[in-house]
């Protein structure tokens, strides 16, 4: 891809620093508080229409279970090499056990994952089918979740665990998917750390004073109450800049990173500084599911290691450019990021 010459020059100048940061991704200790979810992908071949109802009959081929929601944020940190402590809730069911096994296999500390006997593990089951020699297509998604909030006792236990761990970690990340784990008391405990990162789909004002927020463009627009692009959908630097300023004021944050899909990402700081990082991959985009969690993980590790805001945003953008090339919630690794950075530097040099 073609990078702006000024940005390409800055990237080349920072290359050694970025590679060194990637070498150190295993050092930070991070506490992630999140709405834990299991993503299931059930796939089969279409055999015929059922005689019982006008529906397809699938011959089951395989089922894949992966971390989703806030669990995907945790898994991304682990695959990037960080030392991760997970905090959240799972139900007394097979899906909760599956999530624990996924985390334990990735080396995640699961002592902060509590058993909620009153609510199921949030589970999203995607059922897909295909005929012979045809592409697989999703047919239906089945969600398992409760609209009830966790009990007061569980919330108190979460708060107690977070406060116990605060002094032993370099950062606290809140991954809020709206499933009830992040109550006001839990948020207050998480934000008591000096470096807190918030990835929330809505109600950003609940996290007043966090160090950095990472909304995508629709989430940012919902928070400020107006569009950050022109009526015809074209980009507007003035609207985007105003949105970044208003979001900082709304949340009292130090930094606000707005991810903008094919337009890259924009980072605004409360000192008035702003950075705009172009997308590193616009053509090989197959699935953006979970890419936001990947950005959060790489960005946070960079900042913990002393990266500048620009360097950390570049690392987050680089990580996202890898995972959107694959289907489903798929993390990346420092090794893959090094290869991607080398290719990006080569392409920008050869243009």
Give a short overview.
By secondary structure, the chain is α/β, with parallel strands linked by helices. It is built from 11 helices and 13 strands.
- The run of helices and strands is HHEEEHEHEEEHEHEEHHEEEHHH
Alpha-beta classification: alpha/beta
Instruction: Work out the helicity level.
Output: 25-40%
Main sheet summary: 9 strands, mixed
Strand content of the residues, in percent? 25-35%
Q: Helical segment tally?
A: 11
The N- and C-terminal alpha carbons lie at a distance of 9 Å
Number of strands: 13
Instruction: List segments where confidence is low: pLDDT < 50 over at least 5 consecutive residues.
Output: none
In spatial order, strands of the major sheet run 5-4-1-8-9-10-11-12-13
Average pLDDT confidence is 91
Q: Looking at the structure, what is the overall shape?
A: globular
Radius of gyration (Å): 21 Å
Description:
The protein is 37% helix and 27% strand. The strands form two sheets. Strands 5-4-1-8-9-10-11-12-13 form a nine-stranded mixed sheet, sandwiched between helices. Strands 3-2-6-7 form a four-stranded mixed sheet. The chain is α/β, with parallel strands linked by helices and 351 residues long. The relative contact order is 0.15. The mean pLDDT is 91.
Features:
single chain; 351 residues; 27% strand; globular
What is the fold's blueprint, element by element?
Elements: H1 5-13, H2 15-23, E1 29-34, E2 36-49, E3 56-69, H3 70-79, E4 83-91, H4 94-105, E5 109-116, E6 122-130, E7 137-144, H5 152-165, E8 171-176, H6 184-190, E9 196-200, E10 212-213, H7 217-224, H8 237-251, E11 255-259, E12 265-269, E13 274-277, H9 291-304, H10 309-323, H11 334-350
Parallel strand pairs: 1-4, 1-8, 2-6, 4-5, 8-9, 9-10, 10-11
Antiparallel strand pairs: 2-3, 6-7, 11-12, 12-13
Helix pairs in contact: 2-11, 3-9, 5-6, 7-8, 9-10, 10-11
């Amino acid at each position: 891809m073609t990078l702006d010459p000024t940005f390409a020059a800055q990237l080349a100048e920072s290359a050694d620093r970025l590679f060194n940061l990637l070498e150190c991704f295993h050092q930070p200790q991070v506490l992630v508080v999140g709405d834990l979810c299991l993503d299931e992908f059930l796939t089969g071949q279409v055999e015929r229409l059922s005689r019982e109802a006008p529906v397809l009959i699938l011959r089951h081929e395989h089922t894949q279970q992966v971390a989703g929601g806030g669990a995907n944020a945790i898994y991304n940190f682990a695959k990037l090499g960080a030392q991760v402590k997970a905090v959240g809730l799972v139900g007394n069911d097979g899906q909760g056990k599956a999530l624990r096994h996924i985390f334990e296999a990735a080396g995640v500390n699961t002592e902060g994952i509590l058993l909620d006997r009153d609510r199921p593990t949030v589970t999203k089951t995607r059922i897909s089918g295909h005929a012979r020699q045809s592409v697989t297509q999703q047919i239906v998604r089945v969600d398992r979740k409760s609209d009830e909030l966790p009990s007061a006792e569980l919330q108190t236990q979460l708060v107690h665990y977070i406060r116990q761990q605060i002094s032993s970690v370099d950062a606290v990340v809140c991954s809020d998917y709206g499933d009830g784990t992040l109550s006001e008391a839990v948020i207050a405990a998480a934000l008591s750390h000096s470096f807190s990162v918030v990835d929330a789909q809505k109600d950003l004002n609940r996290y007043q004073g966090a160090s950095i927020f990472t909304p995508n463009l629709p989430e940012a627009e919902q928070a400020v109450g107006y569009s950050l692009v022109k009526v015809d959908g074209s980009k507007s630097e003035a609207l985007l800049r105003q949105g970044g300023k208003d979001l900082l004021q709304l949340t009292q944050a130090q930094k606000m990173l707005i991810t903008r899909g094919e337009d890259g990402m924009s980072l605004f700081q409360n000192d008035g500084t702003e950075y705009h990082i172009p997308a590193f991959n616009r053509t090989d985009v197959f699935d953006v599911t979970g890419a936001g969690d990947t950005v959060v993980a790489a960005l946070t590790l960079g900042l913990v290691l002393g990266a500048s805001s620009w360097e950390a945003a570049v690392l987050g953008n680089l990580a996202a450019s890898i995972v959107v090339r694959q289907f489903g919630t798929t993390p990346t690794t420092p090794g893959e990021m090094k290869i991607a950075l080398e290719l990006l530097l080569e392409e920008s040099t050869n243009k």
